[in-house]
Design a protein that fits this description.
Elements (H helix, E strand, L loop, with lengths): L6 H7 L11 E5 L2 E4 L4 E4 L2 H4 L8 H11 L12 H13 L4 E5 L2 H18 L7 E5 L8 H6 L16 E4 L4 H7 L4 E6 L2 E2 L5 E2 L2 H14 L2 E5 L13 H5 L5 E4 L10 E5 L1 H4 L15 H14 L2 H25 L2 E7 L2 E6 L7 H11 L1 E2 L1 E2 L4 E4 L7 H19 L5
Parallel strand pairs: 3-15, 5-6, 5-7, 7-10, 10-11
Antiparallel strand pairs: 1-2, 2-3, 4-12, 8-9, 11-12, 13-14, 14-17, 16-17
Length: about 400
């Protein structure tokens, strides 16, 4: 018989790269979780924008169970039916002609950046290797992607970093234009910055980047790891903006909780990743393909995408009303169900405290830096769950306003 495990075991056994909450979830359904003591929590975090259809969705369970009874894994020396079907779903739903499957958003971005440099070399432009990214971006934790991310706190301890990467302020087209040259092979940008503060791009900014990339022969890469799969109310955020990238990366919600990522691109660009030039052992796993296919089928429906926009209004209207009472937020922003509440001057640096006190109230939320509370709940979260979660959130915020601490 196995001995019980506790939150304290984390501190003894796990590499201390995380500081998880003081409770251990053991069961979940919809947008509610329960911990080891049976206490319930409403989930506004969504596994960091992963659980697009909530927890234990019956159709995802069935897809996984049925595939698990057939074929789990073969490696990349073989293909499989579920991943081929998912590839066709993504191609039919987007600009893309080809798909590369992997396990995470970082891997998808790594593949995109490698593709940009290899495409330039293959075309005879051996010096065309510059990459332009943006301040406060987040593209992953591999050495290449953490260097492209515009947050030095995540990269400074791992020098020397990959060279040839420059950063401009987000939403500053003039600054980007000054960096994009004939030696630029790619511009990588999040249509909505998630970790960097829930900052939506302006249409002018993304349109301008498209024009600059066309002018200089650079690839435009949209990192839609957090904004994709219905999160903004469109299947992918590029559809919301009407700007089509050359390469798109997707992960998080694509597997609905099962680890998977993908890089989408065009026929001509895909040809540069020829046999042996890139790979992954687990990417395109049949289990991931089966679950991802069902996620995409369920999310890419007009009523679900319209429901995301409706739920955005539920949140924003309630948060604005709450702020009238507490005077805590400088700005409430975001698209769809990726929402950020920036704390005003009186509450700067208190986002983590609000997160911790929310957990005490039975609510799971996210932060995006020291000053921004972030919500990324299920795309089908119910109105009663939203209402009760926001009641708990207000109690946590009121406690902060009254001087509470942990």
């Amino acid at each position: 018989m196995q001995r019980p495990v506790t939150r304290q075991d984390f501190d003894q056994w796990i590499v201390p790269t995380y500081a998880p909450a003081n409770f251990v979830p053991v069961k979940a359904e919809g947008s509610t979780l329960w911990d080891q003591q049976g206490r319930s929590y409403i989930d506004f975090a969504g596994g960091i924008a992963v659980n697009a259809l909530g927890h234990a969705h019956p159709e995802l369970q069935l897809a996984l169970q049925q595939q698990a009874a057939k074929l789990w894994h073969t490696g990349n020396g073989y293909t499989n039916e579920p991943v081929l079907r998912l590839a066709k779903q993504l191609i039919d739903a987007t600009f893309a002609d080809r798909v590369f499957f992997c396990n995470s958003g970082a891997e998808a971005n790594e593949a995109a950046l490698k593709l940009a440099r290899k495409a330039a070399v293959d075309r005879g432009f051996t010096q065309k290797n510059g990459i332009v990214a943006f301040d406060h971006a987040f593209h992953g934790r591999t050495l290449f992607t953490v260097s492209a991310g515009g947050q030095p706190a995540y990269s400074k301890d791992f020098a020397p970093l990959p060279a040839g990467i420059a950063h401009a302020p987000y939403n500053d087209l003039a600054a980007a234009a000054a960096l994009i040259t004939p030696q630029t092979c790619a511009v990588i940008v999040e249509p909505v910055q998630g970790e960097g503060g829930v900052n939506p791009a302006t249409p002018t900014f993304l349109q301008g980047l498209r024009e600059l990339c066309d002018r200089h022969g650079a690839l435009l890469i949209f990192d839609e790891v957090q904004s994709g799969v219905g999160r903004t109310g469109s299947l992918y955020a590029y559809m919301h903006y009407g700007v089509t990238p050359d390469v798109l990366t997707t992960a998080k919600a694509l597997g609905g909780g099962f680890p998977m990522g993908a890089m989408l691109t065009t026929e001509s660009l895909a040809a540069h990743l020829n046999v042996g030039s890139h790979g992954t052992t687990y990417g395109g796993n049949p289990l991931a393909g089966a679950v991802g296919g069902k996620v995409l089928e369920l999310v890419n429906r007009p009523e679900v995408l319209a429901g995301v926009k409706e739920r955005h209004q539920w949140f924003v209207e309630a948060l604005q009303a709450m702020d009238q009472r507490l005077k805590m937020f400088k700005e409430i922003r975001g698209l769809g169900l990726l929402i950020g509440c920036e704390l005003n001057q009186n509450y700067r640096g208190k986002a983590k405290l609000i997160n911790q006190l929310a957990a005490r109230e039975g609510l799971m939320i996210l932060i995006a830096g020291a000053d921004i509370v972030r919500f990324a709940p299920s795309l089908i979260i119910t109105q009663p769950e939203v209402q009760e979660g926001l009641v708990r959130f207000e109690r946590a915020c009121r406690a902060v306003a009254e001087g509470a601490s942990i």
